[in-house]
Amino acid sequence: MSEKIKAIVIRSNDRKEKDKNILLFSLEKGKIWATLKGVKGEKAKMKLAQNLFCFGDFVLEDGRSGKIVTGFDVIESFHEISEDIEKYFEAMAVLEVVNAIEFSSESEVAKMFVLTLKTLKSICFEYDRQYYILDKFFIELFKLNGFPLYTDKCSVCGTKSFERMFIDYSTGEIECMACKGFVSEEIPKASYLALKILTNTDFDKLKSVKLADNSEYTLLKILVKNFENRFDKRLKLIGILS
Ligand SMILES: [Zn+2]
Questions:
Q1: Could you say which of 77, 109, 141 is where a domain stops?
Q2: Residue 237 lies in a domain
């Protein structure tokens, strides 16, 4: 039986001889491993399908040891991402996050698929300043999963006039100085402002935004820590955190 899915290649491993194993993140089935046969051969017509970030229509069939890709049409290869080291590290971070999440429903998969595609598109074609898009990706991810981060009031006492704000990593909420819990960290003012601005700016408008120097990177580290606590996963983010 064959099935057709829309998917993004999020991992690509060598297999024996000329084969590759790819992990697809699909709109229809979430994450699914499949084998590309003979794809390392010179004239392999499905060559593009072994590349990370590649988005297309895949036809899968059951083989003796798992799914085999028997058809592929590229929709967007996003090959420009791999030609720019800054874009590459950020797009790899997006794939690492998708890899880390365990989805529990079809609607979660669909929403995350749309966000992933939008983020890769933005990194590929609308990249301007480092980490703005990646910050936006995390902010939207939290929103999708029911724990939006930006708020103008303390989540505990509700005050709107707080001088210093903290993120509580045990809940993923913003708190004031008086209410902050034990596992909280102060969000510096500039990063809090960056969080607010990025929350209220669409991906396609990010180019028109200018944040205070370094506020985006400090914010990114907070967003990553919040992700790790919400999803109980550790992220490496090679080229960004290490
Ligand atoms: Zn409070």
A1: 77
A2: no
Of 207, 127, 118, 221, nearest to 167 by C-alpha is 221
What is the separation of C-alpha 108 from the centre of its chain, rounded to a whole number of angstroms?
A: 14
pLDDT for 172 equals: 95
Q: Tell how far the Cα of 188 is from the centroid of ligand 1, in angstroms.
A: 17
* Inter-residue contact 93 to 242 (CB < 8 Å): no
Whole-number Å distance, alpha carbon 100 to ligand 1 midpoint, is: 32
How far does residue 173's CA lie from ligand 1's centre (Å)?
A: 11
pTM check: above 0.85:
yes
* 225 and 105 assigned to the same domain: yes
Do 130 and 28 lie in one domain? The reply is no
pLDDT of residue 45: 77
* 156 and 204 part of one domain: yes
Residue 42 has pLDDT above 80, yes or no: no
Q: Which strand (E) or helix (H) includes residue 117?
A: helix 106-125
**Of the residues 32, 62, 77, the one at which a domain ends:** 77
Give the separation between CA 38 and CA 31, rounded to whole angstroms. Answer: 22
Q: Residues with Cβ within 5 Å of ion ligand 1?
A: 154, 156-157, 176, 179
- Residue 236 is assigned to a structural domain of this protein: no
Are residues 72 and 86 both part of a single domain?
no
How far apart CA 87 and CA 64 sit, in angstroms, is 38
Strand, helix or coil for residue 105 = coil
DSSP strands (E only) in the chain: 2-14, 20-26, 30-36, 55-63, 66-76, 165-168, 173-176, 184-187
List C-alpha distances in Å: 42 to 17, 33, 45, 112: 13, 23, 9, 35
Do 136 and 86 lie in a common domain? yes
The total number of structural domains that make up the chain: 2
